[in-house]
Amino acid sequence: MQSDWIWGLLGGGLIGCAAAMFLLINGRIMGASGILGGLVDGTGRGNLSERGAFIAGLVLVPGVLALAMGGAETHLSGNLAVIIGGGLLVGIGTRLANGCTSGHGVCGISRFSLRAIVATAFYLLAGGTSVLLFKHLLGVI
Amino acid sequence: MRALYAFVAGGLFGVGLLLSGMTDTRKVQGWLDVFGDWDPTLAFVLGGAIIPMAIAWRFTVGAAPRLGGTFPAPPEPRLGHNLVVGSVLFGAGWGLSGLCPGPAMASFAFGGLGGVVFLIAMIAGMIAAPPVRSRLDAVAGSS
Hints:
heterodimer, A: 141 residues, mainly alpha, 3 domains, globular, B: 143 residues, 6 helices
């Protein structure tokens, strides 16, 4: 669609403002995998309520908005192996790399962190290769 | 107070993810599909997000967070094997499924059973990460 890039820019701007707010007010980096991961493995015990509240907002607010818009669609694959395999890889990978699209891609690149730039280069490369392999060569997605 | 602002930031982040198309796996896979029907939308999302954040980092110089404490330490210069291996695994899973951690949580309410299964698998992966990290460190240390 022609208007997709406008929505992309607008949504991206909101993501950036959320990250800016979390940094300037709470003093924290808005990384989705780090905020959840710290709850999961117990390393974030010191700021449990802050992490919990962030995730509550992240789940509830777009949920309500999607409902108001008449529903939203993720178009996630129905293949259970794809879903479980994808989830496991995303979970292990983001914790090993200490960041995902939000932490490295948005918060890290915006302060010219070499680690974030290298991480983003590798996950984009691996993502492109993965789509090439699973879509065009194997045809599972 | 910290929790309230965290809730607002999380909500704003989620709305941005939904409106930008990041919760739509077809758009994400379209962006990663460089050899197929490439969809450039996500470049606008990333660009649109980096600009306000780059401005925000400038305001951290010589200042303190509104609610007290200190700003995050400067980025570590050391790269290391975990960063590379982790990013490759993450990218592979992101391409395969079309979901990264933020959108996986943001789509909880409308992602159906598949979305919930993905979240459970992702959390299982996060639990499995520390032992995997120890093994990788051992392998890297002995080579």
